[in-house]
Write a structure and sequence with these properties.
Elements lengths: L1 E8 L2 E8 L6 H7 L8 E4 L2 E3 L10 E5 L6 H10 L4
Amino acid sequence: MRVEAIRAWPRRHQSVMLELPEGATVADALRACGWAGEECACAVFGVVVAAQARLADGDRLELLRPLQVDPKEARRRRARKPAA
């Protein structure tokens, strides 16, 4: 089965297409693309999944990085800036 694994940073991203055996898990996919040591959550099409979750053909596995700023705090900072 084919699975796409994606990880992203603020200004770039990396995408890897994987050929995995049927019944492969998220952990198997991370090992296959060399990202097994990454300490972050994972999602399939935006839905958070555990490392033991089984993948299906055509899934898009996304590595979810921790937020750099709390979204509420970012909104407060933007609101405090004077309008240009």
